[in-house]
Structure formats: structure tokens, C-alpha cells
Amino acid sequence: MSRTAYNREQMTASDTVLVRQLATEPSGEGLRTLYRRYSGELYGFAMGALGDSGLAEEVVQDAFTSVWRNADRFDPSRASFRTWLYALTRNRIVDLRRRASARPRLADSDEGQELAELDEGLELAALRWQVGAALNKLSTEHREVIRLAHFESLTLREVAEALGLPLGTVKSRSYYALRHLRLVLDEMELAS
Amino acid sequence: MSDCAHFRELLGGYVLGALEPDEAEALERHLEACPRCRREHAELASVPPLLGMLDTPETATATPPPELEEAVLDRFARERRRPEPARRRLRWRGWAPRVGVAGAVAAVVAALVLAGVFSPDGDDKAFGHVALRGGGGAKAYADLHALRAGTGVNLRVRGLSGGRGRVYELWCVEDDGSWISGGTFRVDERGKAHVSLTSAARPGEYERMLVTRRAGEKHGQKILTGTVDY
User: Fold this and answer.
1) Of A91, A131, A140, B79, whose CB is crowded by the most CB atoms within 10 A?
2) Taking CB atoms and an 8 Å cutoff, what residues of chain B touch A56?
3) ipTM, 2 decimals?
4) Between A27 and A172, whose confidence is greater?
5) pTM for this entry
């Protein structure tokens, strides 16, 4: 395979293939491709969890460094790359929060309990962020129908009036929007 | 439209709780009698609870600064510990006579890099320079420094269009035509930028450099081109 063909493949290669290549592929292009696929949502997740852009950048950088350092440990049969990446990011956020709260504790404070609650909160935040990312993968038309019907609590008739569309179009659009979102959530291993 | 097709189109509105009461009741009666639509309903019904985790649909729009990508790739280039494969060294011997003096100089630079003469953090002296030109008076000038795992690029740009969200990417084009990214950057409101970037392309393995407007995972439109003066 020519190098040009290789580069073209790189752009469409699956996450698992790109992770496998990290150990042998010297240019770093695989890591760059993975970075471009996931850095936006990871950065958003870290920003939401830490509320600080500098710390969020540090977390994202550390997470991707962990990706290539631990590429040989990635097992796609256990979790998707996205799930693994979020776990790496979450761990780093926990570390940073632990560092930030390294202060004298009250005698009866339970550090284990605090960390468990923190981890649970981050788990939820990561899930929330991934659902948001899934929603962002929809077309503007599909997202708009979901926004109005779910987040604004409008009926489909009201959605049709708001968008100036025939009711039949909105019914059909809401169905395909939900189907598409379900597919994206499936791919992200979020839907049950 | 068959009954199923008609009712299936209502499923989206139904799971979102956005149907009129009479439509919802009619659909529920159909679902009791139709296993296929019931299955589809069960699939779609899992979506709204996940949406319920979001306060707004606008949560996943944060954008990391473009220089973060370079920081990640730079760390990758610096930290990796990869023994140099024999294939690469053989390639130097076959390549140098074909490109004459420039190739020989590049080969010497590369040999020094491989021998570890240059520090991992680069060298103050540039091994090459490149002037890049494009339309509308846009131009750039880059000093190239050898790094153990690639090239450090000190890039000065002027005359590019600024604008919110506009990101440019530098590329090293290898002699076989493959493109190795040198990183991304933005320009200020005057169309200027002065940035330090890192590419995994090794000194001497490329002769052309390009700047493109970044377009996702694709190469993007060429804006500036130039040939490396080794």
C-alpha cells in the first residue's frame, strides 16, 4: 500500500485500528485522527467537570498521552474506544480534584465516601456529555424537532406551527430523528 | 399508507410525549395488536430518558484551542521510544545521490539526529528554511529545526484571512507524496501568526511544505506552498 493510500485509510480507519497502529506507526497521524474525533467532546466534559479551561486542556492532553502509552492494554471486546477514553479522562479529573482538595480534613470525614461520590458524579457527567455529543451528530432539522418537542415540551402540532411545516412532515421528521439518535447512541454503546 | 407505516411515524412524537391525546390513544391500541411496532417502540422509548439527563440540547459544543492538538502531538513525538528500523536507514543511502547536495545535507542532518547529537528539545540552529506563497499576497516563512522524532517549525505568517473558527494547518509533503501534518494555528485579526509547531516528518524526508485551511479529518484547501531550502 502506498503512503498516500495509507494516509487516506487513516482518515476513515476505525478507532480500534488506529489504536493498534499507535505502537508501530511513527508519524503520530493515527493519534491526530483520534484527537480530532474526540477532543471536542472530551474537552467539553472536562470543562464541565472542572470549570477551568487550563485544567481541561491538561486533562485532555494527559488522556491522549495515556492512550498511546497504554495502547497495548486497550481491549475492544471489553469496551469501545470512546468508553475507554472517557474512563482515562475521568481518572485524570479525579486526580486533579483530589490534588485541588488536598487540605486538612475533619477527623470524622470519610475520604473513601467522598471519592466514591465524586466518581459517581463524574460517571454521570461523562454519560451526560456523551448524550449531548450524540445529539450534536444529528442534522439541524432533526435536532430542532427534538429540541422543541423534548426540551421545550411542545406538541408536534405546535412544533409544526413554530417551524412553519406541515404536521405530516414534523411527524415523519420526529420519527426519523429518534431513529437516528437511537442508532448513534447504539454506536456509542449508550442505548440499552 | 398502511396502518403500520402510519402509526410508526407517530412513534417519535409518542415517545417524546408530543402527540395529541387522541393520536396517542389510537397508537396505544395499535401497539397492543402489533408486535413489530411494539418492538420499534421499545427501541425508541430508551432514548428520551437519556435526553432527560440534559438540561439543554447545547451541551457538547466546547472547542479546545487549536494549540492543544500540537501539545498532544508534540508530547507524543518527544516521549515515544522507538528503535529506528533498518528500513529507514537504508532509505537514506538510496535517496541521497538522487537529490544531490540538498539530499546529502539532509542525510547528514538526519544522521546527526539519529546519532542523538541534537537534543530531544531541538537545536537553536535551523537546518532549513522555507518561504511559502499563496494568493492575495499571503505568505509565510519557516525555520526548521531537527527534533529527535521529527521537525520543529518556527512559522511566521501574514496575509491570511482571519475570522472566528478559521484554523489553518501546516503540512510537510514527503517525496512519495504523502502528507504529514505539522500542526494547526490561527491568525490574528491582521492575518498574522507567529507559532512554534511540531511535525513527525523527519528532516530530509520532505521537500515541499503547504498550508491548508483545516477541514476536519481531510487535508483541506491549499492556501500556501513552498519548497524547503536545506
Assistant:
1) A131
2) 62, 64
3) 0.70
4) A172
5) 0.55
